[in-house]
C-alpha cells in the first residue's frame, strides 16, 4: 500500500489521477504493454500498477489481452481526444503572439484555417483593438475564398488539387460578398498576382469600410492557414499598409510557425516517459 502520510487531502486525491494518466501515456506508446514495462517506464510499484489498471479496465479505458501479453488501450480512450484538434494547438500558440502584435500596432488580426473546403475564423484580436473597422461575427465566421484577404492568401499557396476542390463549387455563380461571377482563368490570374506580391488584400465589397492584408501561415513547408490585419480603407492606402505592416505581419507568421513546430516537439518529448536511472526508482 502506498504511504499517503504527510500529504494534504488535495494532493492525496490528485495523485491516483496523475498516476492513471501516466499509465495511459505509456500504454499509448506500444500495441501491448506488460506490468514489467509499466513498472520500468513509470517507476510505480507493481501492486499500485495492478490496482490502477483494474480501475481503468472497469471504466473501459484499458483491456487485458492475457497475463503474458499484457495490456492495451480500449476504445473508450478515443473519447478523451474527441474535443481536441490540431487547430486548437495552433490557436494556443498564435494567441499570445497575435495579442502582442495588436497591442503594439493597434490594428486587429484574424487567424483563419481550412475546414470543410472553406476558411473559418479561429481567433481574432478585434476585442483588443480600439480602432477595429468591424467585428466579424464570431468564431464561426466563414470567409469568402476569392474576396477575403485570408481566402486568397490560402488559395494562392495551397496544393493545386486542394485549390481546385475548394473552388469547384464557387465557379460560374455570383459570389455572396461581391456578386461577381468568376471562372477558373480569372481566379488563376488573381492568385498568381497574390503569389507575385507575397500578400493578398480584401477585394472591393460595397459598404465594407475595412480592408485586410493577409499572408499565408506555414508549418514547415505545409500551409496551415492565413493571418490578416484589417484597417480602415480611409485611414491607410494599400501602399502605406505594405510599407508599414507587411514586414511585421510576415515576421509574425514565421514566429507562429516556428513556435508551433517547437511546441509539437516539446509535446512529443513529454509524451515519452523516460525510465529512471539504473539503480534508482522513481518515488511512488
From TrEMBL:
<feature type="compositionally biased region" description="Pro residues">
    <location>
        <begin position="275"/>
        <end position="284"/>
    </location>
</feature>
<dbReference type="InterPro" id="IPR005471">
    <property type="entry name" value="Tscrpt_reg_IclR_N"/>
</dbReference>
<keyword id="KW-0805">Transcription regulation</keyword>
<dbReference type="InterPro" id="IPR014757">
    <property type="entry name" value="Tscrpt_reg_IclR_C"/>
</dbReference>
<dbReference type="InterPro" id="IPR036388">
    <property type="entry name" value="WH-like_DNA-bd_sf"/>
</dbReference>
<dbReference type="GO" id="GO:0045892">
    <property type="term" value="P:negative regulation of DNA-templated transcription"/>
</dbReference>
<dbReference type="InterPro" id="IPR036390">
    <property type="entry name" value="WH_DNA-bd_sf"/>
</dbReference>
<dbReference type="InterPro" id="IPR029016">
    <property type="entry name" value="GAF-like_dom_sf"/>
</dbReference>
<keyword id="KW-0804">Transcription</keyword>
<feature type="domain" description="HTH iclR-type">
    <location>
        <begin position="14"/>
        <end position="75"/>
    </location>
</feature>
<feature type="region of interest" description="Disordered">
    <location>
        <begin position="257"/>
        <end position="284"/>
    </location>
</feature>
<dbReference type="GO" id="GO:0003700">
    <property type="term" value="F:DNA-binding transcription factor activity"/>
</dbReference>
<dbReference type="InterPro" id="IPR050707">
    <property type="entry name" value="HTH_MetabolicPath_Reg"/>
</dbReference>
<dbReference type="GO" id="GO:0003677">
    <property type="term" value="F:DNA binding"/>
</dbReference>
<dbReference type="Pfam" id="PF01614">
    <property type="entry name" value="IclR_C"/>
</dbReference>
<dbReference type="Pfam" id="PF09339">
    <property type="entry name" value="HTH_IclR"/>
</dbReference>
<keyword id="KW-0238">DNA-binding</keyword>
<protein>
    <submittedName>
        <fullName>Pca regulon regulatory protein</fullName>
    </submittedName>
</protein>
<feature type="domain" description="IclR-ED">
    <location>
        <begin position="76"/>
        <end position="262"/>
    </location>
</feature>
Amino acid at each position: 500500500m502506498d504511504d499517503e502520510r504527510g500529504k494534504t487531502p488535495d494532493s492525496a486525491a490528485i495523485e491516483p489521477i496523475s498516476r492513471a494518466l501516466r499509465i495511459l501515456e505509456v500504454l499509448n506508446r506500444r500495441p501491448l504493454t506488460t506490468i514489467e514495462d509499466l513498472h520500468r517506464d513509470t517507476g510505480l510499484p507493481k501492486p499500485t500498477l495492478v490496482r490502477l489498471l483494474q480501475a481503468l479496465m472497469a471504466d473501459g479505458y484499458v483491456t487485458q489481452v492475457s497475463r503474458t501479453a499484457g495490456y492495451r488501450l480500449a476504445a473508450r480512450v478515443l473519447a478523451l481526444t474527441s474535443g481536441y484538434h490540431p487547430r486548437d494547438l495552433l490557436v494556443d500558440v498564435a494567441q499570445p503572439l497575435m495579442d502582442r502584435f495588436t497591442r503594439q500596432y493597434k490594428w486587429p488580426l484574424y487567424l483563419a484555417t481550412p475546414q470543410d473546403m472553406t476558411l473559418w475564423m479561429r481567433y481574432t484580436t478585434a476585442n483588443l483593438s480600439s480602432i477595429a473597422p468591424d467585428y466579424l461575427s464570431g468564431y464561426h465566421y466563414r470567409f469568402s475564398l476569392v474576396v477575403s484577404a485570408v481566402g486568397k492568401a490560402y488559395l494562392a499557396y495551397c496544393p493545386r488539387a486542394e485549390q481546385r476542390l475548394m473552388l469547384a463549387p464557387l465557379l460560374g455563380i455570383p459570389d455572396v460578398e461581391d456578386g461577381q461571377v468568376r471562372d477558373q482563368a480569372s481566379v488563376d490570374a488573381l492568385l498568381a498576382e497574390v503569389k507575385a506580391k507575397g500578400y493578398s488584400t480584401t477585394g472591393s465589397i460595397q459598404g465594407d469600410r475595412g480592408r485586410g492584408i493577409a499572408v499565408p501561415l506555414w508549418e514547415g513547408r505545409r500551409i496551415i492557414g492565413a493571418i490578416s490585419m484589417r484597417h480602415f480603407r480611409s485611414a491607410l492606402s494599400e501602399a502605406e499598409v505594405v510599407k508599414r505592416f507587411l514586414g511585421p505581419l510576415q515576421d509574425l507568421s514565421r514566429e507562429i510557425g516556428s513556435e508551433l513546430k517547437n511546441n509539437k516537439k516539446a509535446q512529443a518529448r513529454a509524451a515519452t516517459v523516460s525510465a529512471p536511472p539504473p539503480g534508482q526508482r522513481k518515488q511512488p
